[in-house]
Amino acid sequence: MAITLTEKAAKKIQSQLAKNGSGIGLRLGIKKVGCNGFAYTFDYAAEALAGDQVFESHNTTLVVDAASLPFIDGSHLDFVKEGFNESFKFDNPNAQGECGCGESFNLKK
Fold first, then answer.
1. 44: closest CA among 74, 87, 66, 14?
2. Is the predicted pLDDT of residue 35 greater than 70, yes or no?
3. What is the structure's pLDDT at 24?
4. Any idea where the domains of the chain sit in the sequence?
């Protein structure tokens, strides 16, 4: 099981952690929502909790809870700028499609 990120994503995470002033890394997860079923969640990880899986990529820590991991395992996280918008972008091999706005996704059966 693994989740990786690009160097751009790692730099953005490190920059945000520095601004926040604390945290060990980025906490990734999913939640049920939207027109397609699931959405990604992002938060600062103050610590790794029991049951969390911790990944290191480009000297940056990613923390994923056990319930979310099967849905995002094998994903690659990038940070992209499109016009005036900036966001993290998942390449998730478990996702089958996204809604039109890109906020939610569904899973392969």
1. 14
2. no
3. 94
4. 4-95
Q: What is the mean pLDDT of the chain?
A: 87
Alpha-carbon distance 42 to 58, whole Å? 18
- 42 φ/ψ sector (left φ>0, alpha ψ -120 to 50, else beta): beta
Predicted local confidence at residue 32, as pLDDT: 86
Per the structure block, which two tokens stand in for 71?
């849905």
95 pLDDT higher than 90: no
Torsion of CA 46, 48, 53, 54, to 10 degrees: 60
Whether domain 4-95 has CATH 2.60.300.12? yes
Q: Which among 34, 22, 23, 37 is positioned nearest to 71, based on CA atoms?
A: 37
Q: Which of 64, 96, 5, 39 is nearest to 106 (CA)?
A: 96
